[in-house]
Amino acid sequence: MLVNLYQGVFGWLERVTEGWFLGLTARFLFAGVLFMYFWNSALTKLGDGFFGFLSPSTGAYAQILPHITEAAGYDISQIAFFPYGLIVLLGTWGEIIIPVLIVVGLFTRAASIGFIGFVVVMSIVDVVGHGVDMPTIGALFDRHPSALIFDQRALWIFLATVLVIRGPGVFSLDWVLGKWFGIHHETGLSDTKSHA
Question: Which sequence ranges are marked TM in the entry (predicted)?
Fold first, then answer.
């Protein structure tokens, strides 16, 4: 009796949330928790003026390539564009574009993979380039769940992994464009499934 009730309730919950809930919730949490963090960080990397997105600031170089920037005496004109300037430029653009794509649900799976890669690289730069200390790095299976690098960023990566595996859900531009181009999406809603 209790087993049937348990299976019935959670089976129903799984059916009514299939195809929309996880993607929407993951994107909502990304928007509420991470979007402004990355947006504000990206703004510190832009150069001056309208075309500042084409010429990252000294701060961008110092954040992304700390050792190279320090070796150049923080004179970014002394740093070769290829590959270093290109790395900084693409990193700056990625920090702006990837979060926007995830929030609106456009190319969500690819953007989420890009975000995972971005977080991994960012974490390596923080540890190797900026020399953060062990309490900031953290570790798995310790009693401190608030380390800025390992603990928090593992949850960021998990959030993006949900989007890679489950997709953005029906409330996304991917879903709208899929409908426009006739791509069938599994939603778990009985009226959206086509039968041959």
Answer: 20-39, 84-107, 113-132, 153-171
